[in-house]
């Protein structure tokens, strides 16, 4: 009888042991598969969200990058335009996306720094993204009409600081880089933000036309918008916002060379994902972008857009965005532009 009871008790113990072993084996097999699946990234096409409409500068930059990335990622990169609210709609869509590396963002100064600086009720902050790399910068240039009485930066600065000229400058809209750039210059010269009067237009090109027609005295805007007028002699370039001279425009001094590095305000673009990307995804994108920006075909394409290579790896890009966004927010608050 004791023997019978002994065998009866043993069977449940053996059953429990078998179940535990099976469970352990299943868990082990799942764990062993997880790294393989992660290392398999990417295994399907990737969406690159451009937070602006087709045909704009960021759209064209996104398509240039998407054209070379498949060589290094091994998958197609499909540009998807999600415009609205100055880039905020598309940016927020990426912020809210599953962090699996299949929905990424073509970052830009507008959506990732200026819009948050100017708008208090956005559903995201600049730091809400997993930044991968900065790919390029967009030079801005300070220009005056070819017949202006000041033909050098030094003469222009003297005219501006004298307070006798009631100078006006054209912008592509309030709160735009073309508006904030001259204000930064005035600040560095120890002048109030109203030392020159902004006149707002709807594009760099419209501001340029207004300057050529004598409506404004100077402008600081996208080099791509001003390049033809510079090359044909209709306008004079006084200072470039890039840290180094721009190829083809080496005769225009940089603000840095003039002792004003803080005025080196440039547009920028790059790549980011939603917060919480797996390390394997960050590495795959980081490696691919680092190789893509060395591609001669990519460099040629972005220079046609008026951009210059401006690669920053992840850690440096994180720090750059934080610093850039912070200074624009402080400026917007000081000027009462933050709504």
Automatic annotation (TrEMBL):
Record keywords: Signal
Signal peptide: 1-38
Gene3D superfamilies per record: Bordetella uptake gene, domain 1 (3.40.190.150), Periplasmic binding protein-like II (3.40.190.10)
InterPro entries: BUG, Bug_dom1
Lineage top rank: taxon: Bacteria
SUPFAM superfamilies for this protein: Periplasmic binding protein-like II
Family: Belongs to the UPF0065 (bug) family.
Protein's name according to its UniProt entry: Tripartite-type tricarboxylate transporter receptor subunit TctC
Organism encoding this protein: Acuticoccus sediminis
């Amino acid at each position: 009888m004791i023997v019978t009871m002994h065998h009866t008790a043993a069977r449940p113990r053996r059953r429990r042991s078998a179940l535990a072993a099976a469970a352990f084996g299943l868990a082990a097999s799942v764990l062993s598969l997880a790294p393989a699946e992660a290392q398999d990234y990417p295994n399907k096409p990737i969406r690159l969200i451009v937070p602006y409409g087709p045909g704009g500068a960021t759209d064209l930059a996104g398509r240039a990058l998407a054209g070379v990335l498949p060589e290094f990622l091994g998958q197609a990169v499909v540009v998807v335009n999600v415009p609205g609210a100055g880039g905020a709609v598309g940016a927020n869509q990426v912020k809210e996306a599953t962090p699996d590396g299949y929905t990424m963002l073509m970052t830009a100064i507008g959506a990732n720094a200026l819009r948050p600086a100017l708008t208090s009720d956005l559903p995201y902050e600049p730091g809400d993204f997993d930044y991968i790399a900065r790919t390029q910068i967009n030079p801005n240039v300070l220009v005056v009409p070819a017949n202006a009485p000041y033909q050098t930066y030094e003469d222009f600065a003297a005219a501006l600081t004298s307070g006798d000229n009631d100078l006006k400058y054209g912008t592509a809209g309030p709160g735009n880089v073309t508006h904030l750039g001259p204000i930064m210059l005035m600040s560095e010269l120890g002048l109030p933000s109203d030392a020159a009067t902004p006149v707002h237009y709807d594009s760099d090109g419209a501001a340029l036309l207004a300057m050529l027609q004598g409506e404004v005295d100077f402008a600081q805007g996208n080099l791509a918008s001003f390049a033809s007028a510079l090359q044909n002699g209709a306008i004079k370039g006084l200072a470039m916002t890039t840290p180094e001279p721009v190829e083809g425009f080496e005769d225009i001094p940089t603000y840095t060379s003039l002792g004003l590095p803080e005025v080196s305000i440039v547009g920028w673009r790059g790549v980011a994902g939603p917060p919480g990307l797996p390390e394997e995804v960050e590495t795959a994108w980081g490696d691919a972008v680092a190789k893509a920006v060395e591609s001669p075909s990519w460099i040629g394409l972005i220079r046609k857009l008026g951009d210059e290579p401006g690669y920053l790896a992840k850690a440096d890009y994180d720090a750059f965005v934080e610093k850039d966004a912070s200074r624009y927010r402080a400026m917007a608050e000081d000027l009462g532009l933050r709504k």
